[in-house]
């Protein structure tokens, strides 16, 4: 596996951490328990957003060290095979700005699949290109935007493809509205 170099260290130490598979598929973690576990690490201003494993924090750690520390903490505390994607506020803002789709329309919702391994995300993007009726756009080495019909996200071809176990350790998906909320919350830290 080739991991992308990841984001440059955040100049102000502000990061978003996106957990894979929390509060879906049997991995249930209360956000208060998650926050308490993460305060054991050298993180400050830790906050969770929504109940889907979105964390914002401040730390002196770089992104790769933060990713490793959080994954280890989650594995040790909650006993599951934890995988996370770490991004800076500037990178989240750039991904949102690069997205050609609206957050929502009358017929579609926009989702962003985030990845910590650019080669795996490239593979996923290429396979999705071969599927019928998949509209997607590569936003950068760590993100792909795609559309799903309202009420049909889990049945959409891209969702089914990205749910395969091959992509579990390096990708996680959020809707565009969630990324906007995370960006805005990080800006207020």
UniProtKB/TrEMBL annotation:
Instruction: State the protein's name.
Output: DUF1697 domain-containing protein
Q: Which organism is it from?
A: Arthrobacter terrae
What are the leading ranks of the lineage? Bacteria, Bacillati, Actinomycetota, Actinomycetes, Micrococcales
Q: Name the source's superkingdom.
A: Bacteria
Task: List the Pfam families.
Answer: DUF1697 (PF08002)
Its signal peptide is none
SUPFAM superfamilies associated with the record: SP0830-like
